[in-house]
Amino acid sequence: xxxxxxxxxxxxxxxxxxxxxxxxxxxxxxxxxxxxxxxxxxxxxxxxxxxxxxxxxxxxxxxxxxxxxxxxxxxxxxxxxxxxxxxxxxxxxxxxxxxxxxxxxxxxxxxxxxxxxxxxxxxxxxxxxxxxxxxxxxxxxxxxxxxxxxxxxxxxxxxxxxxxxxxxxxxxxxxxxxxxxxxxxxxxxxxxxxxxxxxxxxxxxxxxxxxxxxxxxxxxxxxxxxxxxxxxxxxxxxxxxxxxxxxxxxxxxxxxxxxxxxxxxxxxxxxxxxxxxxxxxxxxxxxxxxxxxxxxxxxxxxxxxxxxxxxxxxxxxxxxxxxxxxxxxxxxxxxxxxxxxxxxxxxxxxxxxxxxxxxxxxxxxxxxxxxxxxxxxxxxxxxxxxxxxxxxxxxxxxxxxxxxxxxxxxxxxxxxxxxxxxxxxxxxxxxxxxxxxxxxxxxxxxxxxxxxxxxxxxxxxxxxxxxxxxxxxxxxxxxxxxxxxxxxxxxxxxxxxxxxxxxxxxxxxxxxxxxxxxxxxxxxxxxxxxxxxxxxxxxxxxxxxxxxxxxxxxxxxxxxxxxxxxxxxxxxxxxxxxxxxxxxxxxxxxxxxxxxxxxxxxxxxxxxxxxxxxxxxxxxxxxxxxxxxxxxxxxxxxxxxxxxxxxxxxxxxxxxxxxxxxxxxxxxxxxxxxxxxxxxxxxxxxxxxxxxxxxxxxxxxxxxxxxxxxxxxxxxxxxxxxxxxxxxxxxxxxxxxxxxxxxxxxxxxxxxxxxxxxxxxxxxxxxxxxxxxxxxxxxxxxxxxxxxxxxxxxxxxxxxxxxxxxxxxxxxxxxxxxxxxxxxxxxxxxxxxxxxxxxxxxxxxxxxxxxxxx
Length: 854
Prior knowledge:
By secondary structure, this protein is of the alpha+beta class. Helices cover 26% and strands 24% of the residues. α9 runs antiparallel to α10. The longest helix has 27 residues, at 335-361.
């Protein structure tokens, strides 16, 4: 029986030429993925604990392929690859060293004439039409995405649904077949690999590598609906034999079943296929759901002390265990077990994911905001995120085509990410434990790049001030989200040691400012007090004061609170120029001048020495207007943390950032750095500008670039402080750049694809709705930025998730899964705050309503 129809609320539709770059990740959280592209094909099989994308020069190793064929029976049979036209710009991509072929092998088969992509992550849909065919096709791809359920949201699989509708006046007979190459072929050319039929429902792909070898693993292709004709082994020969024989059988209607292909057979490409036969009356529809699962239990990717910067893949000696195992390896023994789990729970997994989709896309948010929030959730399903068997999360900054880029859940990049802590808060808390328990040494130095597998981080370089201090703010945030004071008590001594290191290293005179050179997310050191580091410092001190007070550490609470007040005063006194906060470059009076060695020793070059003498160290911003200028205030707002900062001056700085750094057209903007993020006639928010002059000869190295994570940080902060139109203008500019023509809507990149900083976009949801919940205080804050009624928004807490609807006479909180305990409702309407006592526990499937006075 086909699953219920998928209705789209406000689909983000793409048609040619917007299909060119679309590739939506479909896979498990920390479990790898494939991508559904804009014309309906599958690409980028990043399923072996590292990225593998079509940006590779040859894109031929390994030779993964998955594709579907539709044959319409009759006097003149017609066969189509169930994909739309290949975008012209990608035809050259098909060249293997200019030989004109790809080892996928199916790219040159006849296709449907037209394609439209509709995206509502985690669902992607491709609609296909061809005037020569009596049927239309609709492909849906997804992986379960269920807040708080990290097990089912981490399934190593892709679920595919192929629907066909007869638009003619005659009954149509058809054969639909799906074909998957051997995804677990092992170390050689398939000599150790075999395939076996799984009854009449699927194919098991396996190999006989040693059970501890990184190449050991399995895959499965399984029908989630009816039975199929199973070809559990392709013809194995040289050149293009496998797909030539496969096409011949499908095209002639002489598809032959096969129970398997044992590894002893011979070399040559192997794979497996499922074929379904059906009849469609006029206007009738059929659906064929499938699951593609993978399982590679031995991960060889390692990163940490003594390893290359971007990590390396190692093969242990025979009989030695792998460096680590993925989370899913401890949950399911092999790929067929994963596939059977999906088949057994398919209806429920699909329904729960649909309810999440409905709640999110039913939110009263501007389309660009909804697009930005939802599309960047794909990062959680991308190869940027890995998860170890013990449940701990670990992430790259982003992904190069064949390896991760910039390792270690980098603290100063993941600082910006706001989605994981709300949707899967238990996983976010493993990052706090990673920072404070494993990446911190006895001095309090936190290595900002954590090791993989779990272990000590490097401590032979500088700590990142923004990342280390940001971790303290996020500890406060995660404590309030979880309400778990026992967890805080366990981590508190380590957070205290971390903060004391920060004070001792960067503020030895306890001025409240980061005076000494401090490393940061721009991969350089700022010398002297700056507003980005300064506001983060004040926020971290304020967070520590609150946590220390709650745990009875009065001395630390007093010291931290006093220092935060001092720092806030100094920001106003020394760094506010009447329009915005800036940096005061200091060089000659700092204690730690050895940091210059990290840049390059000026004493080795007279020109560098002259620059140092006249301007100070390279890579500063001085009187510039930095888009991250009040980053600490944003982090505090996102954490629900009160600050002693001057709120009016924070707002004025945000106004200045929008006024000076947002450019509606970049054609006159000179960028010698990495212009591919935004350039030409595109709009974007520059990282920095110098409206009052004083640009250094060599400012910080990324200053002229446009980073989406910073754009979302500024946009959400503008909206949260009452500047809705300005914030929305920035968000619209970002999503116009990522419209499929030039860039993938599901891959906002920076130093690599699926860049973690872009998950700052989730902050747009609480910024627009005013939603915040503290499990510690059992209090819900709500205050939409627009007066639309009814106003609905999705929410997620550590114990439950659902939907809030505000009408003129009442507010309703519906909990879809879990539960929500409320003691107090703080509602802000028309600028007025109303504190309403509301002692209620809302359980799954229930709605609580609170009447409002007119």
